[in-house]
Design brief:
This protein has helices at 3-19, 33-45, 53-64, 66-75, 84-90, 92-95, 105-113, 157-178, 180-184, 187-201, 204-217, 252-257, 262-280, 317-331, 335-345, 354-365, 378-392, 401-417, 423-438, 441-457, 462-482, 490-516, and strands spanning 121-124, 130-131, 135-142, 147-153, 224-225, 238-242, 247-248, 283-284, 292-295, 303-306, 312-313. With 517 residues, the protein is of the alpha+beta class. The strands form three sheets. Strands 1, 2, 3, 4 and 6 form a five-stranded antiparallel beta sheet that branches. The chain has a four-stranded mixed beta sheet with strand order 5-10-9-7. A two-stranded antiparallel ribbon has the order 8-11.
């Protein structure tokens, strides 16, 4: 480890001690006696256990930089990991980060637009409505009186992100070279991807297009509203959109006072997540409380309002099918199937004992099955999960990190809104319907037509296409058989499947014959 890396670790360690994080660790849960002794000595020598600990942690994260402020935003949603006083302070990082001193926002906005403000705006507030790690938010009025929001990227934030992420990348590369678990968790790749994600947050052209696309996916929706973007004002560091009237989702007391049905709101959060991931394949990946409002026009049927569409995620068809198969297997408590899916996908080594792995999955998942969110200890589950990952050499998939982060946000918000929420009962009908459409007989036929289309576009790739898609088609047909217990008319479905497969095969055979002629 070079001097620069040691300096960074010393800085991070100093910040952790100043914030009192060592007081949040239970020494009895450490694996070695030496580590337990060192932690006890730190707690004795370096105080700061309780008074103002949340404020100290928030200040240290802000001082460390943009990257660490984003970490604080994530932690602010985890009521199962941190006590209430720390959560309250960290929630300030969602939209109340310390403003940039001396910044003349109107001058920056005018410079970005390249024309006088009074040609487009009746007024612009000089004081920010909200301040986050990447940008600051201002209220304004268009010439016709329409209330809008201006999002202005902080000056020099790109350089700060590159510098901070470069430091973290050096540390993770060092860890991956020396620790097998760090390598299997692919920390270096995750840090690299996170840098790309954060840099995308600074591009308002990208965010503008993301917001337009998300809005198009929820037209007149009863689940989610997305503010309109005024594209003529969009610049690389500026975006203008309609002002959304709603209550911040983190203001639980205000929502309660207005009579909001928290059960409906929590269930809609789950449905919105699954629709974005599985139907639209375009999901909001930064759903902390600072980016979500609640439309309470009808408190008994509230809707979400999505803000800040800078980070959006999508998956390959294979990843979506793989995830759906895992979710369905979990709903059916078919833990061996989950183990087999991990083996087939290459997440665990080929020589893994499937029976032993399925037993570990059962021990992990069974305690949380059909439990409401309020009765699930995420901290214990995460600890056990990492132990299983270490024991079975599980490979973490970087392409799923955004989805996992989004799911953690949704779960954290659900815990705050309605701890009695039964995630399984809410998600099962949606996943069953989606699976019947995308993993059942119709999907198999669709694969055959894709095969024919690929063949006609380039016959020389036909053999490669078959080999590349063979495993996925086999998995789809296996999943189709598994879905049979979700419907009573099993025999009729199988008969239709065979007929459709025969027709598709016939079409391909005829096409090949014609091509030969």
């Amino acid at each position: 480890m070079n001097f620069r890396q040691r300096l960074l670790l010393a800085r991070l360690g100093s910040a952790a001690l100043k914030a009192g994080l060592h007081h949040q660790i239970d020494s009895q849960k450490l694996e070695t006696a030496r580590a337990e002794f060192c932690l006890k000595m730190l707690k004795r020598i370096w105080g700061g256990g309780n008074p103002g600990r949340g404020k100290r942690l928030r200040q240290q994260l802000e001082n460390l930089g943009t990257t660490y402020t984003k970490l604080g935003q994530f932690l602010s949603t985890r009521g199962d990991l941190l006590p209430a006083d720390i959560l309250i302070e960290l929630s300030f990082l969602q939209d109340r980060v310390t403003p940039i001193p001396g910044l003349d926002a109107t001058l920056e906005i005018e410079r970005s637009l390249g024309q006088p403000l009074d040609e487009n705006f009746r007024s612009i507030d000089r004081q920010p409505l909200a301040t986050a790690s990447i940008a600051q938010i201002y209220k304004a009025q268009l010439l016709d009186g329409t209330e809008v929001i201006l999002k202005l990227v902080r000056p020099n934030v790109v350089e700060k992100i590159r510098r901070e992420m470069n430091d973290l990348r050096e540390i993770t590369e060092y860890l991956c070279e020396r620790h097998p678990l760090a390598a299997r968790l692919k920390l270096s790749q995750i840090v690299h991807d996170q840098e790309s994600i954060m840099l995308r947050e600074t591009d308002m052209f990208r965010e503008s297009q993301n917001q337009i696309n998300l809005r198009a996916n929820f037209p007149n929706s009863n689940l989610l509203k997305v503010p309109r973007v005024y594209t003529k004002f969009t610049r690389s560091n500026l975006i203008v959109m309609d002002h959304a009237n709603g209550i911040p989702i983190g203001d639980i007391e205000a929502l309660r006072e207005r009579g909001v049905d928290f059960k409906i709101l929590a269930e809609k959060g789950v449905k919105t997540f699954f629709k974005q991931v599985f139907e639209d394949n375009f999901f909001h990946a930064d759903m902390h409380a600072g980016n979500i409002l609640v439309d309470i026009a009808d408190p008994k049927d509230p809707k979400y309002i999505a803000l800040d569409c800078a980070i959006m995620g999508s998956l390959t068809d294979y990843d979506r099918r793989y995830l759906a198969q895992n979710i369905l297997a979990f709903f059916k408590r078919d833990y061996r199937r989950i183990a087999e899916l991990h083996l087939d996908s290459g997440w665990i080594p080929s020589q893994t004992d499937v029976a032993a792995f399925s037993k570990v999955i059962e021990e992990l998942c069974d305690p949380i099955y059909q439990r409401p969110l309020g009765e699930i200890s995420f901290a214990n589950f995460l600890t056990d999960l990492f132990r299983a990952a270490n024991a079975f050499s599980i490979e973490i998939q970087p392409q799923l990190v955004l989805l996992q982060k989004t799911l953690l946000y949704v779960e954290g918000l659900g815990r705050q809104l309605y701890p009695q929420l039964n995630l399984w009962e809410t998600a099962l009908p949606f996943m069953t319907t989606w699976a019947e459409r995308n993993l059942g007989p119709a999907a198999v036929v669709g694969d055959f037509f894709k095969l024919a289309e690929e063949f006609f576009s380039d016959p020389f790739k036909f053999g490669d296409f078959i080999r590349q898609n063979q495993q996925e088609r086999i998995k789809a047909s296996v999943q189709a058989r598994e879905l049979s217990d979700l419907k009573r008319a099993t025999k009729r479905i199988i008969i239709k499947q065979r007929r459709m497969m025969f027709c598709a095969l016939l079409i391909i055979i005829i096409a090949i014959t014609i091509l030969k002629i």
